[in-house]
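Human:
Focus on the backbone:
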Amino acid sequence: MSSISPKDRIIFALDVSSVNEAARFTALLKDHVGMFKVGLELFVAAGPAIIKAVRENGGRGIFLDLKFHDIPETVKGAMRSASTLGADLVTVHTSDGQAMMKAAVEAAGASRVLGVTVLTSLSADAFPEAGIDKNFTPASLVLHRAKSAKEAGCAGIVCSGQEARAIRDEYGPDFLIVTPGVRLADDAIGDQKRVVTPFEAVKNGADYIVVGRPIRKAADPIEAAKRIAGEIEKAVR
């Protein structure tokens, strides 16, 4: 991944509610980020056509972050549709084992499947409520689920930057690590729990970082993207 430019490691989260807002941000940031993330809010609001619209308007890669989580046959059909739409990266939950992930991989075509390990909004304090074994920590659970994703054939995982180093050490340079929950040092963390800076995420081994609010809410989104790219460049060096 070292050959990828710092700005191309940024996935901008189009967490907006309308096609017009998505179009505005893709046109504004297309030369300053490497990929656009289409998540639940935008996909539900605009439908599958938003994938084509974002690609045509922004000319960049598409990270379809719908976190598929259903029985294997349903996930297989959803993944087949996602691949047909032209999504580059597509997410599926890892929490229900390998059968669901294998079904996704089988139907992915040219899309690459990423296993979502532990959401960055989830802290160890919430594990009992979520039914997660008390012997797990966030780090050990991420490693456990990453192993399952790797064995299922996933191209990589989504995990916090706090766990990225352990994953990189365990699975080497060819297993993709995408890190959300990224904030600049002076940003509010919002509803995230396990956050890191862009520098920390890439230094710890992340290939791509997902950034939404720190760019979207900035007075100058382009300057915010440039600042993040600068942190990534320092980490790569």
The chain has a mean pLDDT of 90. The longest strand covers residues 61-68.
